[in-house]
Amino acid sequence: MRRRFHRAPPPSLPKLLWTMLRGHEQILVRPSPELPLVTITFPRGERTGAMELKAALSETWLTIPAELRARYTPVLGKMPPMVVVELRARNTCRCLGHFHPPGTESRVTRRLRAMSGVDACEMDLAFVSIKEWQPAPLAYNAAAAAAGTDRGEEFELFRLRLALLDVFLHELHHRASPEAAEAEVRGHSGEFYSAALGAFTQNHLGVSYGLAP
Ligand SMILES: [Zn+2]
Ligand SMILES: [Zn+2]
Fold first, then answer.
1. Cα 189 to ligand 1 centroid, rounded to whole Å
2. Average pLDDT for 34-42
3. What is the pTM assigned to this prediction?
4. Angle at alpha carbon of residue 161, lines to 125 and 100, rounded to 5°
């Protein structure tokens, strides 16, 4: 994400050793059928991000109006049956995520492929960076004001899960259209984010601020 042909840099040696020693946990998410199966792999003990991503894929996705979800139908139609998401706090390059091109996948993905016999692709997502990400400040401010203090928590949770979904879909778009320019892929995910935020504000908070689809 964010820069074309940019790949995740390798972690520093101390970080790599710490990660190896601590180990990883995996959870399997079965979202609605139009999405692929998702295996989330994350450092042992750091479940928060994995649980939010799971909720984003299996719950938040279904609360987004069907006509907005349909914008990703062409991308989702080209997905393998399984996607592996390496969830981490941040990337050293500060990107929110990267699609891992064929041949660069981790051992987890290669092993899952070998064990299951089905194809899988891989990406990484930076949970803390995505949580802090502010892609549409105008829409955000309007929606936050509409939510007020009463429903602020509900709104913040939706916004976090939508951001996770948005970066996830963005990276899948790179898999579906490897030749597409970053600006095109980013334009598509940026519009999806704003439209979904607008729909939530209208449908759940009862306020329209003119950015809804
Ligand atoms: Zn991108
Ligand atoms: Zn990067």
1. 9
2. 97
3. 0.90
4. 20
